[in-house]
Design brief:
The protein has two helices and seven strands. With about 100 residues, the protein is α+β, with helices and mostly antiparallel strands. It has a seven-stranded mixed beta sheet with strand order 2-3-4-6-5-1-7.
Length: about 100
């Protein structure tokens, strides 16, 4: 049986990793949520020590964490180099293939 928690986690892409361009807003690093069905943007609060500069000049690999701060879903920087066409974990790669028309 599918729970409401499972449905919410799926639409928010909790646990999935995305290649995102971050921008600074009011002292925070943020990015629009890559899942159009998500009602919240991302607030990148974890893994900032990996960044050589804030905001980074290019896209970085960000994992969606299952917490909300200031009305935004928390993200964690997990890598500095990424492929903007790839998505990892929980079937996300299939979504990227579908968007690219290859899946």
């Amino acid at each position: 049986m599918t729970s409401i928690r499972d449905l919410v986690s799926e639409s928010l892409a909790v646990g999935e990793t995305f290649c995102l361009a971050l921008e600074e807003r009011d002292g925070d690093l943020v990015a629009p949520h890559p899942n159009a069905g998500s009602p919240m943007d991302l607030l990148v609060r974890e893994g900032l020590e990996l960044l050589p500069e804030q905001p980074p000049k290019g896209s970085v690999e960000v994992e969606v964490v299952g917490r909300v701060v200031d009305g935004r879903l928390v993200g964690r920087v997990v890598g500095l180099e990424c492929d903007p066409t790839s998505v990892e974990s929980n079937g996300g790669a299939e979504e990227a293939d579908d968007e690219a028309g290859t899946g």
